[in-house]
TrEMBL record:
<comment type="similarity">
    <text>Belongs to the cysteine synthase/cystathionine beta-synthase family. Cds1 subfamily.</text>
</comment>
<dbReference type="InterPro" id="IPR036052">
    <property type="entry name" value="TrpB-like_PALP_sf"/>
</dbReference>
<dbReference type="GO" id="GO:0030170">
    <property type="term" value="F:pyridoxal phosphate binding"/>
</dbReference>
<dbReference type="InterPro" id="IPR047586">
    <property type="entry name" value="Cds1"/>
</dbReference>
<dbReference type="GO" id="GO:0016829">
    <property type="term" value="F:lyase activity"/>
</dbReference>
<dbReference type="GO" id="GO:0004124">
    <property type="term" value="F:cysteine synthase activity"/>
</dbReference>
<protein>
    <recommendedName>
        <fullName>L-cysteine desulfhydrase Cds1</fullName>
        <ecNumber>4.4.1.1</ecNumber>
    </recommendedName>
</protein>
<comment type="pathway">
    <text>Amino-acid biosynthesis; L-cysteine biosynthesis; L-cysteine from L-serine: step 2/2.</text>
</comment>
<comment type="function">
    <text>A cysteine desulfhydrase that generates hydrogen sulfide, H(2)S. The H(2)S produced by this enzyme may modulate central metabolism.</text>
</comment>
<keyword id="KW-0963">Cytoplasm</keyword>
<dbReference type="GO" id="GO:0019450">
    <property type="term" value="P:L-cysteine catabolic process to pyruvate"/>
</dbReference>
<keyword id="KW-0456">Lyase</keyword>
<comment type="function">
    <text>A cysteine desulfhydrase that generates hydrogen sulfide, H(2)S. The H(2)S produced by this enzyme stimulates respiration in M.tuberculosis, mediated primarily via cytochrome bd with a lesser contribution from cytochrome bc1/aa3. H(2)S modulates the balance between respiration and glycolysis, and also contributes to redox homeostasis. Probably eliminates toxic levels of Cys (which can induce oxidative stress).</text>
</comment>
<dbReference type="InterPro" id="IPR050214">
    <property type="entry name" value="Cys_Synth/Cystath_Beta-Synth"/>
</dbReference>
<keyword id="KW-0663">Pyridoxal phosphate</keyword>
<dbReference type="InterPro" id="IPR001926">
    <property type="entry name" value="TrpB-like_PALP"/>
</dbReference>
<dbReference type="GO" id="GO:0005737">
    <property type="term" value="C:cytoplasm"/>
</dbReference>
């Protein structure tokens, strides 16, 4: 088979896989403390590989194939905090390609097991700062291709339509009381999701703003404040590894496009995890930590809307399920080891969500969330 025929067949396989898949659900999440403000979570855990990264992995493979970067037998190498690698291992196996995930050694054992389950190999490095460099080296040694999600996520996704996450959200909102969300709240790993949503909202002329919630250990917030607000924060020192898996990076990645984000919020990890637990009680199942970070962003936006006398809707993302974090967010000892006071954080989040108590003031940048 010629290279060209192999590429055509590989693209057909991915398109057929897409054709067999359903869209993800948009789930109403009642916020009892905020009548007139309707909140929804886009449940990306229901993809075949369990996270929002399923969309990205599909896009990255199609982009690489269309660019002529992948051939029969190419080893695919990726730098990941885990979720993207799980999804890419799935697509690599679909195409019969070897796959190597380069990840920090702190990556959850559940994600490592999921990558191996899909036929991938894991190459662990001591720190999140070293994953790109190690990936370049491995790709060179194997004659393979480094996917590089942190560079290509924003451009591999079809931001104008093609059932991207933004188009899907707006379609699913069509019959709701407030069909155009005032805010869509997300968080950034690559920044690809925030770029896609921000571009799509502007392109379609929707009066929707993007709020990006950043975890405690991450360079995105300071980078954003510098680019958008012109705050003289200096060159931020590399952040320590994020404790909210999948989001937060030690440096601002190329795929994070500040201009696509209308506002940012810095969220302490204990609050993210308390919001994760509160969300579990509302949904009757376990979600991952980044969903909790998003829910704090939702509460911040809901408060600001309420203070401005606005009603309307807010959409956010349920990024993945809790089964990937049994050893951490769902292990009692883990919280003690991190030194979190989860009782206080839990009481606070419940009071904010259910009785509209005030959130503590959190660092914000960009447009006021009202
Ligand atoms: C669990 C989880 N949530 C959220 C995100 C953020 O998505 P994005 O990479 O589009 O910024 C990621 C990215 O890795 C993730 O793994």
């Amino acid at each position: 088979m010629s290279q060209r025929d192999w590429v055509a067949q590989a693209i057909r396989k991915i398109e057929a896989d897409f054709n067999r898949s359903a869209d993800t659900h948009l789930i109403p999440l009642g916020l009892p403390g905020f009548p007139g403000i309707d909140v929804y979570l886009k449940d990306e855990s229901s993809h075949p590989t369990g996270s929002l990264k399923h969309r990205l992995a599909r896009s990255l493979f199609l982009y690489a194939l269309a660019n002529g970067w992948l051939h029969a037998g190419s080893t695919v190498v990726e730098a990941s905090s885990g979720s993207t690698a799980v999804s890419e291992a799935y697509f690599a196996r679909l195409l019969g390609l070897p796959f190597v995930a380069v990840m920090p050694s702190s990556t959850s054992p559940e994600k490592i097991a999921a990558i191996e389950f899909h036929g991938g190999r894991c190459h662990l490095v001591p720190s999140a700062c070293g994953i790109a460099e190690a990936s370049v080296r491995l790709a060179r040694e194997t004659g393979g291709h480094f996917m590089d999600q942190f560079t290509y996520a924003e451009r591999a996704t079809d931001w104008r339509a093609n059932n991207n996450i933004a188009e899907s959200i707006f379609k699913q909102m069509a019959h709701e009381a407030h069909p155009v969300p005032r805010w869509i709240v997300c968080s950034a790993g690559t920044g690809g999701t925030s770029a896609t949503i921000g571009r799509y909202a502007r392109y379609r002329g929707y009066d929707t703003r993007v709020l990006c919630a950043d975890p405690e250990h991450s360079a995105f917030f300071a980078h954003y404040a510098r680019c958008i607000v012109g705050e003289a924060t200096g060159d931020p020192a590399p952040a320590p590894p994020s404790r909210i898996e999948g989001i937060g990076r030690p440096r601002a990645e190329a795929s994070f496009i500040p201009g696509c984000v209308d506002a940012m919020l810095k969220v302490p990890d204990a609050l993210s995890l308390a919001a994760m637990r509160w969300t579990n009680t509302r949904l009757g199942r376990r979600v991952g930590g980044s969903t909790g970070t998003n829910v704090i962003g939702v509460l911040h936006a809901a408060h600001a809307m309420r203070a401005a006398g606005r009603s309307g809707s807010i959409v956010s993302i349920l990024c993945d399920g809790g089964e990937r974090y049994a050893h951490s967010y769902y292990a009692h000892d883990w919280y003690a080891a991190q030194g979190f006071d989860m009782d206080a954080a839990g009481t606070l989040v419940r009071a904010v969500a259910e009785q509209a108590a005030a959130l503590p003031p959190l660092p914000t940048a960009g447009e006021a969330a009202n």
